[in-house]
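Appendix B. Raw example, untouched.
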Amino acid sequence: MPADSVQESPSSLRVAQRKPSDWLRTGFWVCTVIAAAVALRRLFAIIHPPRSVPEQLRALDAFFVSHPGLTLAHILPALAFVCLAPFVVLRARARGGVAERLLFPLGGIVGITAYAMSIHAYGGWRERAAVLFFNSVFLFSLLRSYRYMRRGEPLMERRWMLRAIGILLGIATTRPVMGVFFATSRLTHLEPSQFFGWAFWIGFSINAVVVEWYLRSRAVSPAASETHP
């Protein structure tokens, strides 16, 4: 779990002129689109359950439809969070704006409902453990970002907000991982309820590692915080 260190204190951050590479920007947009699509599909599956879907997906849809209120309370704020995230990640200045302030209450709702949904984890204890761990990291990062905002330290506020956004978008990275498990299910004989948890661990871990690597590979001085995250 990321923690403040001497290297990350505002007084010791060094200037780095590198900008996010194209592959990082592409990865962010891909995750954003997938996360939004996942939330929208789940929303439509609750409102109008699809009839012609594979048996494995039908079982998964039925699981979420059985808890419609909780599912909606989770995916609607998550969808709003995902839609606002680009305004925070891609802005030129480190100082927070309206979009970033809206992410705090939205993220809090997403985190609390994620804990509640883990009680009925489709993937069993593996998925539940992944949700409890990464959701705690998400809320911790969100809280640290909020505290830095209150203290008037926009650079550190932004760094911790990027961590929170990266963790939340991990739900998108789990989808191609699940696709691999689905494609190889004839060989592995694993059911979705068996590999769901592993997909969560892999997907969220990838995002957490990439965001942390990005932040720690380009420490920025307060003087550069107006133009670099």
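End of appendix B.
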